[in-house]
Amino acid sequence: MNFQHTTPPTTVSSSRMSSSSPPSSAGATATVRKLLALTTPFVQPSGCSQWTPTSVDTSTFTGSKAIAAVLMSSQDPSCYPSGWADVVPVHRFSFSPGVCPSGWVYHSMAEEGVKRTSTANCCESGFNYLDFEHRELVSDKTRRCGRWTTGIATGTGDGRSEGGRTLLVHEAWIITWAASDTSTLSPVPPTLTNSMIVPTWTPGQVIPDGEYDQMPPSDRSRFLPESAQWFLMVGMPIIGALLIGSCVFCCVRSSKKKRREKRAAAMDAQRAFTEVVVARDATKSSNR
Description:
Helix content is 24%, strand content 25%. With 288 residues, the protein is an alpha/beta fold. The strands form 2 sheets. Strands 1, 2, 4, 5, 9, 10 and 11 form a 7-stranded mixed sheet that branches.
């Protein structure tokens, strides 16, 4: 890999390096918020391995006064998929549906239970995702891939680089896909089941059954599907309230009906008694 410096080095006084601002050519007026689709592996053009050098004080983390040279990957729009510069910066490294660039490695593959989609973080081959040594040297608010290397002239000129090592860092590409997207993706990502979390995966790699299962199938079968759980938590109380309300309404209505029937029966009995008395009095009068 040919490492080229695109800007002069900058010494960062704070203990954590701030993210490099993309050049103005990277779409200063970007307005697109929809994620780009990347259904086939993107191949970066030759000459895209350019890095922006800077230096970071590591004393906060190592306890010794030293300077670590950090090279951040450049954000030249020509090194990214078509339309990349038109997307707002916060979404530029997210693709859906998507696959990792050619030769890159899938990291932390997992299924998001609520959205029913799968996600992975793409790092260039040889880089680690987030867990590289001294990852705290760079902003923890973005997803980074990094690795330490030696023998690279960083141009810092201070001669105090930590053991002569240089930290190379680039943004992770975040890809997501749904089960319905797999027919359009090449290569086809593995099917994630039983709450699998796959640390790393490369196209063509076969994942043995149960290798990364977080929940055995026998245990998972004991639990109801998410839709059924929502029904029990939300639907059943509503149905129960409606049933109770219906019962109360029916009882009240039935009670009122019975009272009306009793009053009607009493009035009928009173009328019948009155008619008998009148008839009897009329009979007595005629017999006289």
